[in-house]
Design goal:
274 residues, D-Maltodextrin-Binding Protein, domain 2, 6-stranded mixed β-sheet
């Protein structure tokens, strides 16, 4: 039986991602209050896998999770995308005119910025995670408090949905990576995530990208991030396809590394089919 970690309480979107990614497999879920503890237990082999959110179609890269790849021995072995539908959840009998405070995770609050801007009377309050915010308003038993979370969280805590789908984008989705401690061979793998630290010389980024262009490799994502403990220095995260007939991953990274100060393979896995 696999033991799979995720951040938050039951009913979060991370919880849902675990259920869908491991559907049909024998697994046990483990809740964690934060990502640091997940990574710590993953590296100590106390859990086999973890699902972490890395990107959202509304708010972009989730940097606090991506940056764990910089100095931890973790590797992506799969991905899944989950539609994010934020519900305004309140106590039974509450009306929108009763609500004064709205609790949720900062990401969820950001993804509902249009709704909150349209209701300036509502005070948004950042909380540990979406599902925990629902638990909080239930425990407070205060008709003036509401939460933004999934329909699963509303069902788990047996609270009604006051307003449905209040997220800014109707196509709002979050991409999750399934990570483990050591690289694994994945059948049908066709997507690579890698990190590159460029040399401090003119044209270094161009020469790195030229390697992929000359081999007709499709780049799916390019993100720059500040390097921890290195002021105003940056690394780059790349996602790209690697299809049958194209160079093997080892030779490709070896050639790309000639134009870099350092590089790291973050994962080689099967792309999620929308």
């Amino acid at each position: 039986m696999y033991k799979v970690g995720f951040q938050g309480k039951n009913g979060t979107f991370s919880d849902l991602a675990v259920d869908r990614f491991f559907a049909g497999k024998d697994f046990q879920k483990a809740n964690y209050p934060n990502f640091k503890l997940i990574i710590k237990d993953l590296e100590k082999d106390k859990i086999d896998y973890a699902l972490i959110p890395v990107e959202n179609t509304t708010t972009g890269i989730i940097s606090r999770t991506y940056d764990f790849f910089f100095d931890h021995d973790i590797y992506a072995i799969g991905e899944i995308c989950i539609a994010i539908k934020e519900q305004l959840i309140a106590l039974p009998g509450a009306e929108l005119t009763d609500i004064q405070e709205v609790y949720s995770h900062p990401e969820a609050l950001s993804q509902c910025s249009h709704f909150l801007a349209a209701h300036p009377e509502l005070r948004s309050i950042a909380f540990q995670d979406t599902s925990a915010s629902v638990e909080h308003i239930k425990n407070c038993n205060d008709i003036h408090k509401a939460a933004l979370a999934s329909a699963n969280a509303a069902a788990y805590y047996d609270l009604p949905i006051l307003l449905k789908d209040v997220q800014d984008n109707d196509h709002n989705m979050t991409r999750f990576l399934c990570i483990c401690h050591k690289p694994q061979k994945v059948e049908g793998a066709n997507k690579i995530s890698a990190m590159f630290i460029l040399k401090h010389e003119a044209g270094s980024l161009f020469r790195l990208l030229e390697v992929f262009a000359k081999k007709n490799i499709n780049l799916l994502k390019l993100e720059s991030r500040p390097m921890p403990k290195h002021s105003f220095e940056y690394l780059f995260y790349l996602d790209f396809e690697l299809l049958p007939g194209q160079p093997c991953i080892e030779s490709l990274l070896a050639e790309a590394s000639k134009h870099c100060a350092a590089h790291k393979l973050l994962g080689y896995y099967k792309a999620y089919e929308m």
